[in-house]
Each structure stands twice: as structure tokens, then as C-alpha cells.
Design goal:
Belongs to the ankyrin SOCS box (ASB) family. The protein is mainly alpha-helical. Helices cover about 50% and strands about 0% of the residues. The protein folds into three domains: about 1-135, Serine Threonine Protein Phosphatase 5, Tetratricopeptide repeat, CATH 1.25.40.20; about 140-275, Ankyrin repeat-containing domain (Serine Threonine Protein Phosphatase 5, Tetratricopeptide repeat), CATH 1.25.40; about 280-318. The chain has helices at about 1-10, 15-25, 35-45, 50-55, 60, 75-85, 85-95, 110-115, 120-125, 140-150, 150-160, 185-190, 195-200, 215-220, 225-230, 235-245, 265-275, 280-295, 310-315. Helix 6 runs parallel beside helix 8 (about 110-115) and helix 12 packs antiparallel against helix 13 (about 195-200). The longest helix is centred in the C-terminal third of the chain and has 15 residues, at about 280-295. It starts with a helix and ends with a helix.
Amino acid sequence: MKVVLRRQSKKMSLMDITKIFSMLQPREDEEGTRESEELNQVVSQDDYQTLERLLSQDRYKRVINSRSGWGVPSTPLRLAASKGHLRSLEVLLAHGAEVDSLDVKAQTPLFTAVSNGHLECVKALLEAGANPSGSIYNNSSPLLTAARDGDLGILQQLLHHGAEANVHGRVPEWAANSAACSGPLYLAAVYGHLECFRMLLLYGADPNYNCTEEKMIARIKEPKTLLEICLRHGCRREFIKLLLDFGANVYLPKVAVEKMPPSSEGLELLLQARAHPKSLMSQSRLAVRRLLKQAGHAQALGELDIPPVLVSYLRHQL
């Protein structure tokens, strides 16, 4: 799935923007039908019982995926997701609503639920098979949004269902810049969401650049490591410590020591890490986690036939 998404992403960068825009516009047969308006009305009111009754009739079921309405024309499922109307959302899914339908912004219902902080709707959509990465035609992604907003519950759900921890904004390679490589780990750091930061690292986020596309990084004149970003933004020492614990390369950051505040705890931790090599236990933990990540099983620690205390250590719980 991840390989397919990456291939699709490359194709998308070559598509004509006019073609994408026309594809996302509601068709003439989607606009203004009485049945569509009624569905939107009962969904807006979370009248799930009436919704169930309407969708038992073919004329309503035929328009279950129609995009209509004022403002941002969208499907009934997108409307339910945006308002957090879980019961209506579940009725729509049970009657065959397209789980990854797109609105005119190329946003999926999942993206809308994440943006509005509706955890239960996020869970229901993911269980119904929603793509945790959102749409390839949208520049952002659900995970970037959750990391920026600091919503730990939603972030964990997305990661658990396969969202890529190193995702970044979808832009062509020629448009690469530092902002384009700003992944969820970067956002969690600059917005001060420590637990989200920890969760992303546990799910395999890269502690150096939070971007694993070497071509993208190579096009940036002076790419900044996460250690540099955290020091520059004055992040708490806990952020620096987590990056060091998860194996950040302490020699990559270009830090002008003389320009840093003398009382910078983060800088002190970095300099200590440069002066003192990691313990054998820490290096062993990093090696095990790296091997599991390469095998695509970053979260399979609980399945290892080892003592629970070692599992806790590998999960950075000790």
C-alpha cells in the first residue's frame, strides 16, 4: 500500500491542475436534487433514524455519494464527519457511502473529521477502511493536521492504521524547501506537543530530518535537522532528550554555540551527547528498533519472545 501511494504521488505531481480542479467539481446530476438536500438536512441534524428510513429507498440511496450544498459542495458522509455526528456517519457507512469520497478541496471525510477533532468519527472511518493518508490530490494529510493540533488520540489512531510517520506536504520535487520537508515531528515540536512528539518517534519518525526522501532533502540549500529546529524554537529539554534517545545524529546539527543562550538546557544536552558515546544498552535498543522498522514491524515489540522489562525498555518506558 505504501509503495502504491508513493507511486501515485509521483504521478500526481505531473497532472495538470486544471484537470484536477474539473475532476473535483460536482457534476450537473449531483447538484440541487431534492433527495440530496433532504439527506444533507437530516445528517446536519444528526437525525439518524430518519436517515436510515430514507436510505432504505432506492431514490435516496442513489444520491448517497452526491456532492451538493452551499459553500464547499460535499457528500453526506463528509458533512457527518465535519459535524462529529457519529450515528449518522455509521448509518451512511452501513448503506455503502464511499469512505474516501472527495470534496472540492480534495479532502476526504477522514481529513475533515481529523481537522475538527472528532475522535469517534475518525475511529469509525478508519475501521471502515478509510485511507489514513488522506487523498493524494490534497497537499496536506490527516497526520500533519493531528500533529499540528496536538490531538494525541487521533494521532495514535492514524499511526495504528498505517499512516506514514514521516509524511510531509505533497509538493513537486522542484518546489522543495524547508517548509515542504516539515513533517509531523517538526510540527509537534514547534507547537510544543510533547506526547505527540514521543508517539511519532515510537512509530518510526526519523529523528534527524523527519523526511526520508533523499532527493527532496538534496534540493534544499541548508536543510535543518530536528535538533536544530528544537534549539532554535527554544523547545523544552524533553524534546532534545527524546531525539537523542531515539538516535538522532548529534554531529549533523550546525549550531553556533556562541549565539545560543548560555542557559540553554537543550544545547547542554547536545554537547554532552557529543562528548560521551551512548551506552551499549542504548545502542542495542536503537539497533533492535532499527531492524524492526526496516522489516516494517516498528510496533511489533510486544510480539517478541523476551521479558516484559526488555519490551518496556525498547519502548522507552524505562
